[in-house]
Amino acid sequence: MTNLTIHITLRDQSHVPTIPRLTSLLKTVPSGIMSSIQAAVWEATSSGATPIVKTIPAPVAAAGDILVRVSHVALNPVDNFLGVPGSVVGFDLAGEVVTAGGKLAKGSRVAGMVQGSFIPNYGAAAELVAADPDLFFKIPDGLDAADATTFSVSAVTAGVAVYKVLGLPFPPATAASGGNAPWFLVSGGATTVGLFAIQFAKLAGYRVIATASARSEALVKSYGADKIVNYTDPRAAELIREATGGGVQLGLEAAGGSSFPISIGSVSNGKLAAVLPTPDDVTVPPGVEVETLALIRAYKTVRTCVDSSADCRLLRRSSTSPSCTSGSPTLSLASQSSSSLASVPSLCRSATASRRSTKVCSSSR
Question: What is the pTM of this model?
């Protein structure tokens, strides 16, 4: 009997207090095939929700779906702030196909994503997972399964922002190249989402200017950024405007929080896609549009539906947030992300190719 290995994708876990506990819990989960399985399930508590390892019914693959024996799970910040009680922790996973579906044959090494931390008895941190094959890819030879788990959520988030929200051309089409190429801003260039966004923008023919710390400058440049501005510099927004000839028209805010004033101050008559909602104390000036990714708005709404103690402040910033409904709401990623996801292995390196910021936990049993 083998063990479920948990791969942590977070570069900084200090703001996600639940996740260190998940690593110790999930190390106890063996993998196998049976009528019931073990999984890390969110359980309601007086303070919100906490993950526990428990037995749940084994999933049954619907027609066309795949069944995956999970070997690796990657954790993301969204797992911690969503955590719908009764759902299984985790979005990103890798493993072996035990029931074929789509173009994925039995025995294939695959990685992909599911709607974890959201739907009852469903998520990545389980012995077996039934899933849509369109949201999975066959892991290429030479790519470690642990690294493969870091593609899906980060790549899809960056892809939705770059292609759907901001409208950059999808490969092989490109914008103007060379010295006439427009500038694209990636605020939070060293985040996993930021590293994918840099690559997508470069593929679209843009010059990329990114914010990062001095420590991460070499990493961000290695992924294609043309210019780096240190976000700790009090003149960061001014330096970006100077370097780009008056500011960018398109950009991605991948870090959130205190980096918003820099990214918003760097846009001139343009649009910024944001992974997280704009803080209440940040004013968006005329001529600048900020669009928070719809997926994040929906997740915050669902959390409010199931957890009356959730902070509703973020919801009030979007008039398009979906309303609460009875039952278990679902979100479909396939329509907007499957083509981008399928292209990831051939277009991009893993956003955590540098192992200095990852942690792999495993144990014998």
Answer: 0.73
What is residue 120's predicted lDDT score, i.e. its pLDDT? 86
Pick the closest to residue 44 from 91, 89, 86 (CA basis).
Answer: 86
Average pLDDT over residues 224-232: 97
pLDDT, one tens digit per residue, over 265-275 is 999 999 999 99
pLDDT band at 2 (very low <50, low <70, confident <90, very high): very low
355 burial via Cβ count (<10 Å: 0-12, 13-18, 19+): exposed
Terminal Cα distance for the chain, rounded:
8
Q: Which CATH class is domain 2-151+350-361?
A: alpha beta
Q: What is the DSSP letter of 178?
A: G
β-strand pairing of 183-187 with 207-212: parallel
Domain boundaries, the chain: 2-151+350-361, 155-317
Taking only the tens place, the pLDDT of each residue in 133-142 is 999 999 999 9
Burial pattern 108-130, b for ≥16 Cβ within 10 A else e, equals bbbbbbbbbbbbeebbbbbbbbb
Cα 333 from Cα 323, distance rounded (Å): 18
| Alpha helices per DSSP H over 186-310 | 192-203, 217-222, 236-243, 260-266, 294-306
Topology (CATH level 3) of domain 155-317: Rossmann fold (3.40.50)
Q: Within 10 Å of residue 45's Cβ, how many Cβ atoms?
A: 10
Cα(262)–Cα(269) distance, rounded to whole angstroms? 15
